[in-house]
Amino acid sequence: MQNERVNLDAAFGKLQEYFSPKVVGRVNDQYVKVTKLKGEFPWHTHEHEDEMFLVVRGRLTIGRSEQDGGPVVLEPGEFFIVPRGMRHNTSATEETWNILIEPVTTTHSGDVQSPLTKSIAEQLA
Amino acid sequence: MQNERVNLDAAFGKLQEYFSPKVVGRVNDQYVKVTKLKGEFPWHTHEHEDEMFLVVRGRLTIGRSEQDGGPVVLEPGEFFIVPRGMRHNTSATEETWNILIEPVTTTHSGDVQSPLTKSIAEQLA
Q1: Closest partner CB to B28 (pick from A7, A49, A74)
Q2: Size of interface A-B (CB pairs under 8 A)
């Protein structure tokens, strides 16, 4: 994986399941992941870790509480970094392609275990 | 800067100088930077830090020694992570837009001081 050029279209093309991030690179102590989304992913929190979402196709809604500013909608070419400790969810009405950057230790569903939760091992497979 | 949606076209649109990265986000202990390149940036090494290059416009050549595999050419939608300790340079014959991800401590010209070197303070300005 490391020391290779990565073509994002090719990496996204290999994804067959929604909400199943795959690691495509590691920069220092963080993974770069690609994920396709459609539907809704449960609300959760990462107590100690920021999480970056960069949309390349579709439209991603990052839910936040009203107190935290309410939902953020990302179009292609836009990113948002969810700060540690902020409760959030993700949803998309159309198929959406997203690049995730987060620490190698981050579980994508944070403090919540859901049927959609994928282990780091599954994300590396 | 944090807790705001970032539109990359708008961020690149503000850049007026080549090889002058600007910080547009921070995810944990790494900065997300945008930079426009045209011409050649000197060879250098970051002894302890990986550096990610994601091209969104133009074409970026990352020079590596023959022993390290020779040059890597990135088109839009492609990225490469230069591992710590690997001597490299960057060059572009046409204006190229690049997203850089690297530790908050990284000087973009690594172990080399050149007239093109920008301090972290300048990158945050």
Answers
A1: A49
A2: 89
Q: What is the mean pLDDT of residues B77-95?
A: 97
**Chosen from A3, A61, A62, A74 to mutate, greatest number of chain B CBs within 10 A:** A3
Give the domain ranges of chain A: 8-106+114-124
pLDDT tens sequence across B91-121: 999 999 999 999 998 888 888 888 889 888 8
- Rounded to the nearest angstrom, the minimum Cα separation between A116 and chain B is 24
Closest C-alpha among B36, B43, B33 to residue B87:
B43
pLDDT tens figures, A40-81: 999 999 999 999 999 999 999 999 999 999 999 999 999 999
Selecting from B5, B30, B73 the residue whose C-beta is nearest the C-beta of A80 gives B5
| Confidence (pTM) | 0.94
Q: Which CATH superfamily is domain B8-124 in?
A: Jelly Rolls (2.60.120.10)
pLDDT tens digits, one per residue of A1-21: 678 999 999 999 999 999 999
Annotation: CATH topology of A8-106+114-124: Jelly Rolls (2.60.120)
Interface of B with A in 53-112 (CB under 8 A): 56, 69, 72-74, 77-81, 83, 101-103
pLDDT of residue A1: 66
